[in-house]
């Protein structure tokens, strides 16, 4: 039991640290699961999704005041109404595709080989974006044009492939559509709330039979550690990417993906 709790502790930390970085939390968790031997347990893949609730609550706690103002203005403030509509527009493509292809994603794409290749490819994309002379037109994540929210939502669907990174797809697409780095990263936080909540609720509904007392304790451990780690990332990421860009995350992806491929080729 103690070793199971230790695994849940480590996986929770990794989830919290990587969920909002453009490095793919799901990809890292799947590779760690393989190392820990969790990949032979059907509950392991469900655990990866369920502990995302800790990261969701981290966003809600950090942005509580701003989100509360938006919630209060939903029925009276046109700007708040427009932003909520924009988030819903960005959320719907992934929600629809995720519901339709849920089984295929979990059974086929949740594969360490897929993760390693997409980590490397995503790293190359981040390096390419960092080298572009982009001229941002939008500096506030709450005021993007509605078609831009839809475009970001469509790009986010690529993150159905483990290793692509939900935050990475959101940030890169927002920047290519004209956002500055800070606003792109901040919108990835806001879009994460409905996206991750939907994935959490759907997976819990589909796999509630696996929630034994022991598994519930494991999820609770992962939830707590992911919550604490995610708060640290959310509070520091915006300033970091505004100053330094994405090269660090890009090379991290390439290194992890390459080491993973070597390990898989050696039969580890």
UniProtKB/TrEMBL annotation:
Ranges annotated as spanning the membrane: 42-63, 83-104, 110-129, 141-164, 184-205, 217-238, 250-267
Chief localization: membrane
Membrane topology summary: Multi-pass membrane protein
InterPro entries referenced in this protein's UniProt entry, alphabetically: UppP
GO biological process entries: cell wall organization; peptidoglycan biosynthetic process; regulation of cell shape; response to antibiotic
Pfam family, one: BacA
Origin: domain of life: Bacteria
Protein's job: Catalyzes the dephosphorylation of undecaprenyl diphosphate (UPP). Confers resistance to bacitracin.
Name by which UniProt lists this protein: Undecaprenyl-diphosphatase
């Amino acid at each position: 039991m103690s070793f199971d709790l230790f695994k849940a502790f480590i996986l929770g930390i990794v989830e919290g640290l990587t969920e909002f970085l453009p490095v793919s939390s799901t990809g890292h968790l799947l590779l760690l699961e393989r190392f820990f031997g969790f990949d032979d347990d059907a509950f392991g893949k469900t655990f990866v999704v369920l502990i995302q609730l800790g990261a969701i609550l981290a966003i809600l706690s950090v942005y509580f005041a701003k989100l509360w103002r938006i919630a209060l203005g939903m029925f009276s403030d046109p700007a708040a109404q427009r932003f909520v509509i924009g988030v819903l527009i960005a959320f719907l493509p992934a929600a629809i595709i995720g519901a339709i292809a849920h089984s295929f994603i979990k059974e086929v794409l949740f594969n360490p080989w897929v993760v390693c290749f997409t980590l490397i490819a995503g790293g190359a994309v981040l390096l390419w974006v960092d080298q572009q002379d982009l001229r941002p037109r939008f500096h506030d994540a709450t005021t993007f044009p509605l078609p831009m929210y839809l475009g970001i939502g469509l790009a986010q669907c690529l993150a159905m492939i483990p290793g692509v990174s939900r935050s990475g797809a959101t940030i890169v697409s927002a920047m290519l559509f004209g956002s500055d780095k800070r606003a792109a990263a901040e919108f990835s936080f806001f879009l994460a709330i409905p996206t991750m909540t939907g994935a959490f609720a759907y997976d819990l509904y589909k796999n509630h039979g696996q929630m034994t007392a022991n598994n519930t304790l494991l999820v609770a451990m992962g939830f707590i550690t992911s919550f604490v780690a995610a708060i640290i990332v959310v509070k520091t990421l915006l300033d970091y990417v505004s100053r330094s860009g994405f090269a660090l995350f890009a090379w991290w992806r390439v290194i992890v993906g390459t080491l993973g491929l070597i390990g898989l080729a050696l039969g580890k």
